[in-house]
């Protein structure tokens, strides 16, 4: 039981980071971006490319290009690659907005949603064309799970150092994001724009600047989620598509527009998927997110932390 919970929290932390960006996009730009999952995929592969560039430039040891730092399967190159991937993913999101969404913004949210489907197809196929369809890995280093709880206690608990890293950095990121949104001037401006765009404009807040901030912040979190998914599982071109339903399930479960709701929703979805694998079978894993999504829409459409319309 403890093992299932731990696995679910790892999955949920990845979903939570992606869901935060998705809910920010909806709160500030007022449309559901079905192409958000592709930012996760591109972020993971851009980090992979950054690692290859480090090796080509001789910045890492050719005999150990990933330079793992015990007890992890990676070292500083992957951390640096994550920072580069986050910046490049943010530029990709801004480019998509400038080329597509900004031109259609006055056409209404339905037009933007449909456009996001087309953008997702184009970006996903661009990723497949660039990197091919073969799954890849950041490192071939083997990790041995560390026993934290003996088997006699609820089946025991074993977890790898990489998974602990993902959980820890996700927690730090969420706390830092909460501070940013509640204490910084830009964060408060973003929240004001999400609450009342016209009133924020009257107060001197530039909506376009808030749009750009939402794209950048959402893309950075998506890149982190993509790298974490690649670190704990594998890199594949369909990563964004595979995570799209869990992302939306987390957003709707927590309440559209709620950052903390996205975090809680992501953890619940991750736990649901982990328990579905254990109790029903791995082939039903994707159905768990769909069940959570449907149940929340039937019982509480505005989500756990969503405000009443």
How are the elements arranged and paired?
Blueprint: H1 2-29, H2 36-56, H3 76-104, H4 109-131, E1 146-149, E2 157-159, H5 161-183, H6 185-195, H7 197-202, H8 207-232, H9 239-254, H10 259-279, H11 285-299
Antiparallel strand pairs: 1-2
Task: Please describe the structure with a list of short key phrases separated by commas or semicolons.
309 residues, mainly alpha, two-stranded antiparallel ribbon, 11 helices, 2 strands, 2% strand
Explain this structure to me?
This protein is an all-alpha fold and 309 residues long. Helix content is 71%, strand content 2%. It has a two-stranded antiparallel ribbon with strand order 1-2.
């Amino acid at each position: 039981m403890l093992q299932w919970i731990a696995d679910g929290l790892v999955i949920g932390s990845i979903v939570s980071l992606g869901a935060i960006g998705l809910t920010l996009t909806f709160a500030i730009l007022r449309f559901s971006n079905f192409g958000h999952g592709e930012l996760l995929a591109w972020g993971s592969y851009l980090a992979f490319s950054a690692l290859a560039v480090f090796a080509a430039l001789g910045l890492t040891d050719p005999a150990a290009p990933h330079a793992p730092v015990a007890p992890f399967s990676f070292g500083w190159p992957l951390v640096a690659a994550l920072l580069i991937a986050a910046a490049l993913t943010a530029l990709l999101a801004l480019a998509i907005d400038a080329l597509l969404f900004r031109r259609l913004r006055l056409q209404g949210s339905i037009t933007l949603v449909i456009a996001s489907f087309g953008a997702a197809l184009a970006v996903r196929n661009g990723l497949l064309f660039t990197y091919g369809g073969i799954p890849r890995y950041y490192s071939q280093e083997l990790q041995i799970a560390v026993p934290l709880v003996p088997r006699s206690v609820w089946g025991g608990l074993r977890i790898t150092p990489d998974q602990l890293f993902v959980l820890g950095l996700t927690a730090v990121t969420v706390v830092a994001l909460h501070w940013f949104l509640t204490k910084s001037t830009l964060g408060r401006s973003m929240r004001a724009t999400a609450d009342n765009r016209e009133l924020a404009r009257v107060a001197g807040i530039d909506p376009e600047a808030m749009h750009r901030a939402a794209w950048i912040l959402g893309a950075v979190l998506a890149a982190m989620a993509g790298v974490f998914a690649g670190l704990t599982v594998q890199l594949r071109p369909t990563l964004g598509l595979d995570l799209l339903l869990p992302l939306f399930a987390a957003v709707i479960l927590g309440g559209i527009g709620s950052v903390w709701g996205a975090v809680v929703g992501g953890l619940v979805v991750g736990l649901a998927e982990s328990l579905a694998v254990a109790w029903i079978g791995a082939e039903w894993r994707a159905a768990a997110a769909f069940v959570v999504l449907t149940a929340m829409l039937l019982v509480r459409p505005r989500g756990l932390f969503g405000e009443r319309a």
